[in-house]
Amino acid sequence: MPIDPATLRKATEHVRRSDRVLAAIIRDVGPCGLQTDDRSGAFAALVESIVYQQITGKAAASIYGRVRRLFKRRHPRPHDILSATDEELRGVGLSRQKVAYLRDLAQRVSAGLRLRALGRLDDEAIIEALTEVKGIGRWTVEMFLIFRLGRLDVLPVHDYGIRKAMQRAYRFRKLPKPDRMRKVAEPWRPYRTVACWYLWRSLETRGGRSG
Fold this sequence. Notes:
Order of helices and strands: HHHHHHHHHHHH
Helix content: 55-70%
Strand content: under 5%
Number of domains: 2
Largest sheet: none
CATH superfamily of the largest domain: Hypothetical protein, domain 2
Number of helices: 12
CATH architecture of the largest domain: Orthogonal Bundle
Distance between the termini: 31 Å
Radius of gyration: 19 Å
Structural class: mainly alpha
CATH class of the largest domain: Mainly Alpha
């Protein structure tokens, strides 16, 4: 479901009042434009996240497009992945490792991993459930929490963009480590996601995106 605009305004105001540095970024960036992407099911969203790992967005989009054409549908389903041969999946540009990851995800969903029920769990329970899947780490689940489920209190401490933005905004000499990031972010609760959205945007509005 889309995030309620009134909730985003409330969250932005909370973050603005809790942190002078972010208050300046909020002034520069303007209203929060955080949106969720619910154009596909949870399974397809996770498939796409695996495809996009460790390659450029343009290359990943091309491969994902070929995946969809292989199965002749807009979004792949578990039985599509399981019924395809390794040669077919490799033929659309997937690495052997990613083929293994996608098969593990499809097998777990077919065996009873209820992705539709994840929305009823708290963040840590979702992270615990999904990181059991090969190829899905905490960062991938955190992006799923933010951009798929619209969870508002996520702090992805291993995201390079957040680390770089925090280094610049708070004038740290080095990229901050997770413990320091959590300490800085404590006043942002329960809206750390919104603060992170502004940090990501700060890389665009204050000197361009790095990394």
